[in-house]
């Protein structure tokens, strides 16, 4: 068959159109692929208590995302396959069929353009403070006192919240999280405010301070991202996340991950909104 310039352009255009189609529209579904492959590919990144690799063995042995990924793989009767992937690269990893799911991925409007998210919430993380051990903190009112020094990262949700709820306090604003935590470490402030995940690592590293979610609690959900256009995979993920959360299993995995990370779960805010 003779291929002229017009025919070649038609072929190329058709190929490009196929590549742009959602995954499920141009190939078998993710669940079917997983079962044929015999493995459930979970994006992982060294970030306890969400994912944790044993440095001695190189195995991913702990973390909420690891425990949940292994349980979901077992439900499909396939092996758990961790694939190292940053949260920033996760959407591309899903689009490129490198991974099947990424946990603790917030469902932002921008990400929703590239990947799909289930309706069920994976977990809730809350606005918290890492405070001096001897500082009595239960509510934002306890922090709203003249002379009480708070640090936060400038121009963030935390900054807005502290400005609203602790106007009497001495709020010291810094360019990034590290500088805000350093102010607490050096004793320049009495407490540092952030959403609680980065404070977990800070508490473990510093070996001092107590993590508190002051009331009224300000919490926001995190989710799990899957390949866009695969409604069957979205529905299955939604069912699994909902089951784990409602049964309390998600919280149990989280607490085990905290213990493995060297933190006392009783001293750390829960990830179930109902428990705050």
How would you characterize the overall build of this protein?
- It contains 11 helices and 12 strands.
- The chain is of the alpha/beta class.
- It starts with a helix and ends in a 16-residue tail after the last helix.
- Strand 2 and strand 3 (60-62) form a beta hairpin.
- It has 2 domains: 29-124 and 222-275, Periplasmic binding protein-like II (D-Maltodextrin-Binding Protein, domain 2, 3-Layer(aba) Sandwich), CATH 3.40.190; 125-219, Periplasmic binding protein-like II (D-Maltodextrin-Binding Protein, domain 2).
Give me some keywords for this one.
disordered N terminus, 11 helices, D-Maltodextrin-Binding Protein, domain 2, 276 residues, alpha/beta
Task: Give the topology.
Blueprint: H1 5-20, H2 23-26, H3 30-37, E1 39-44, E2 52-53, E3 60-62, H4 64-75, E4 79-84, H5 90-95, E5 101-105, H6 109-112, E6 115-116, E7 123-131, E8 149-153, H7 157-165, E9 170-174, H8 177-185, E10 191-195, H9 196-206, E11 210-212, E12 219-227, H10 231-247, H11 249-260
Parallel strand pairs: 1-4, 1-5, 8-9, 8-10
Antiparallel strand pairs: 2-3, 5-12, 6-12, 7-10, 7-11, 7-12
Number of structural domains:
2
Q: Helical region count? A: 11
Distance between the termini: 70 Å
**CATH class membership of the largest domain:** Alpha Beta
Kindly provide the radius of gyration, computed on alpha-carbon positions and rounded to a whole number of angstroms. Answer: 22 Å
Classification by helices and strands: alpha/beta
In the CATH hierarchy, what is the architecture of the largest domain at level 2? 3-Layer(aba) Sandwich
Please give the largest β-sheet. 10 strands, mixed
| Percentage beta strand | 15-25%
Mean pLDDT: 91
Tell me the overall shape.
elongated
Q: Give the % helix.
A: 25-40%
By CATH, the superfamily of the largest domain comes out as Periplasmic binding protein-like II
Q: Give the strand tally.
A: 12
Q: Which series of helices and strands comes N to C?
A: HHHEEEHEHEHEEEHEHEHEEHH
